[in-house]
Design brief:
mainly alpha; 2 domains; 5 strands
Length: 476
Amino acid sequence: MVGIIAIILANVHFADDVARTNFGYGGWNGFSRYASTLLAYGIHTDLYFSNIAPLPQLLAVLILAVASVMLIFIFKKEVFKKKIGEYIWHLIAVVPLGLSPYMLECLSYQYDSVYMAVSVLFAILPLLFSEKLDYKYALMLFIGTEVICMTYQAAIGIIPMLVFFIAAKRWNEEKKKNTKDVLKFVLFSAVVFLISLLIFKLLLMKPRDAYASNSLPEFWNIIPELISHLNTYVSLVFSDFKVLWLVLIGIIVVSFVGLYTYRSKKNKIAALFVGIITTIIMFVMAFFFYAILDKPLYATRAMYGAGAFVAMISLYVVNGKGKERLFRIPVTILAYCFVVFALTYGNALKEQNNYRDQQINIVINDLNSIPIMMNDTVKNIKVKGSVGFSPVIIHMPQEGQILNRLLMPSFSQYVPWMAYRILYQSGIPNIYYDENVEMDESEMTYYKETVFYDIKGDDHNIIVEFKGVEPEGILF
């Protein structure tokens, strides 16, 4: 709660929130997120989805907290029988699950945040039943997979990630030969999981090809495209995160492999090999199911599986005795860094929103003073360019591009929310917005030229062109 408080206090209509606040619609069914729509009817208690912030965000925090406790319970249920001084370290270890920088975009949405959190919950919930390979586990795994696909699909990689984590842990902790049982668990889980995905694809999924797609590349291109897309995701992690974060995560990963080998009751060389392979597979699973698509989504909200990966290996690292407790230090520092960054981002979000609203209010005042706006002719309004970042944001240290990538979905020139604010929140009559209308700017008259923007148009069109500068080459 401490980490998200700045985001809640910022009270920003983030990206899609702008349109949903104005029209009260969900729009999730177009992405096959039927469960989000059904849950929204219950949460909003109406067919019209009015803005009830911060309730969805508070519910999201509560759900992520429950998911974190479930993850700890799956890892080691005996933890909660110990004194609080012991299991507090496990709570610190799972901070990245709900408060990684990639999860912050999800928590910024005043509408979607709760459904994104539900997807994480149902990625972890089925594994509570994984001790026995029976119909209960199969049913829960099926339900969990379907709920994820019908709320927010970015969490889908957490299921196989957790399966491999549990399998590696079980194999490592028993002296007797249990390789066959572990492989049976992985195979059983994989079959149920893949059948569940296939059922969703064949019966429930709507084809989608917009800023991202849900179709696969042509058969002979699947492997090359998958490798290329995974490389992009990995590159983004390294360019997004601050050096300190990367160093701490590197220490945690090395500690995980080292402790996994040291604690193993099997052959040490075999344990080292299994530890390394498990780490690689878990990390790849964080992005695999988007990376395999023809057109992946690279937005920060699609990458929160990375936080789940860090949380899982951190759980293993902090679960030590004696000198092994020293490995809790990098885990604790990383968790603190993520809390600090969450507060930084929340305040930056508010600052950027204030800067954007300031410019929009000036534009609205100028539009009201233009004579052509006084007649009854209906005009199409188009917004070009960007307000750019607030001077406060510009002056902040730019180590890692994560802050810019988090802000871009709501404030970039490549999204329609600026036009929506002028059109639907200004009260100006006789204007509409259609981004597909082509305008001939060569014959347009300049009605206003300022340092921050220009306003030009003709009898049927108005263009507001902002002059701010955005960082180049940032994917969002």
